[in-house]
Amino acid sequence: HPSYYHRNSIQQLELPKRKAALIVPAFETLHYRLTFPKSKAELLSMLDMGSLYTFRYHVWPKGHAPTDYAKWRTATVPYRVAWQPDFEPYVVVRRDCPRYDQRFVGFGWNKVSHIMELDAQEYELLVLPNAFMIHMPHAPSFDISKFRLSAGYRGCLQTLREEFHQDLSRRYGAAALKYLTAERSL
Fold first, then answer.
1. Range of the domain at 88
2. Rounded to two decimals, what is the model's pTM?
3. Does some domain include residue 14?
């Protein structure tokens, strides 16, 4: 049962005593109806048959690639991954972790900025070996449509990203330089 597994993982990893973000690997289906896999083995079989895919691999692979799905396939214990630009995994964290930056409402950069902040605060990014979630298809959100169609929206988002980087630099000093350097090299 998923919630039992998560509670068990939280206890085993002593999450209340350490700064860690538990990554739940994300997958997706293009089918509107799906029999949800009951186990990791069943999920891997569906992945191999092509009825599931790693999340957004065909449109935005950078968002979840650092999860290292190849390693996850055979992992039996949680493993640590490093922050990379545009990483936006789904995570389980303690309530006292940094909050989402409220500048990033709508589409774009809410999860990316959150993971960046967690990394800046030296949270361990730990992938859970037996957890997974599946994104189901749905109509595009109003906000993603605005992002795609409006240069003004994209310009505002870029300005907010630059402000966010400046704030990180003020809060974390030289340690935050890696985020700006990574951003500029993209």
1. 2-141
2. 0.86
3. yes
Count: domains in the chain:
1
* For the ranges 4-18, 74-88, 104-118, 161-175, the one whose mean pLDDT is highest: 74-88
pLDDT, one tens digit per residue, over 137-147 is 766 777 777 77
Helix (H) or strand (E) holding 137: none
Distance from C-alpha of 56 to C-alpha of 86, rounded to nearest angstrom: 13
The residue assigned the tokens 């449509």 is: 145
Q: In the predicted model, is pLDDT for residue 136 greater than 90? A: no
112 contacts 131 by C-beta, under 8 angstroms? no
- Residues 6 or more apart in contact with residue 52 via CB below 8 angstroms: 27, 28, 29, 37, 43, 46, 134
At 156, the amino acid letter reads C
DSSP string, 19-81: -EEEEE-EEE-S-SS----SSHHHHHHHHHHTS-EETTTTT-GGGTGGG-HHHHHH--S-EEE
